Fold this sequence. Notes:
By secondary structure, the chain is mainly β.
Amino acid sequence: MKQIKKGPQxxxxxxxxxxxxxxCSLHTEYALTRLVNNPNLSVVYKKxxxxxxxxxxxxxxxxxxVNKLDEYVCLCDLGYFGKNCDKSINxxxxxxxxxxxxxxxxxxxxxxGFTTFNNYPFNCYKREYIQRDYESVNSYCRDLxxxxxxxxxxxxxxxxxxxxxxxxxxxxxxxxxxxWPDGLRVYGMGDGEPNNGGGNNNLLYENALKYHExxxxxxxxxxxxxxxxxxLN
Length: 233
């Protein structure tokens, strides 16, 4: 039987609760230092022991295992996907301008004006080098019956390597974690990111995310960047 290389582990054993306008939300520890100095928030720190769901190294093919409160998440290396990163994207190839929804779907044509990039078979995109701010690019993508680029995996980030483009995540207060529209946390931040324009703890300067050189960086939503829209599936 072929041996599958196991990946490293990354544990998150601490959590804290942030109360904002009466709403309680759970975040990881990384933003605590900014939140405790924010006069607009009341922070209750909770240190909890949780089960190490990564202890049996479930993530394959060089993926990183992130331990969560109730589960684990595998951050797949380039070319792999699936809950445990056990599936190779190369096995699901579609011809240019054709894509599939998932590994069980057949290849079908992209919608008009959209195409596939870099042999990635699971979505179609429209890229324009016209520079737009965050709100303008969101509106533009919606008008095309699509949405702003949402690259959740390393392989998806690699599709547009070399571009400086908006991605689909925005925050409203200092220390709020960047998440995708479905609530999943954004992984793949650049070193020291997000830094809110140098680490100011009280005023939100950088409320959106840009993609550059395979990583995400916080930036103000009024700057202008390349437009990448992602087809609705």
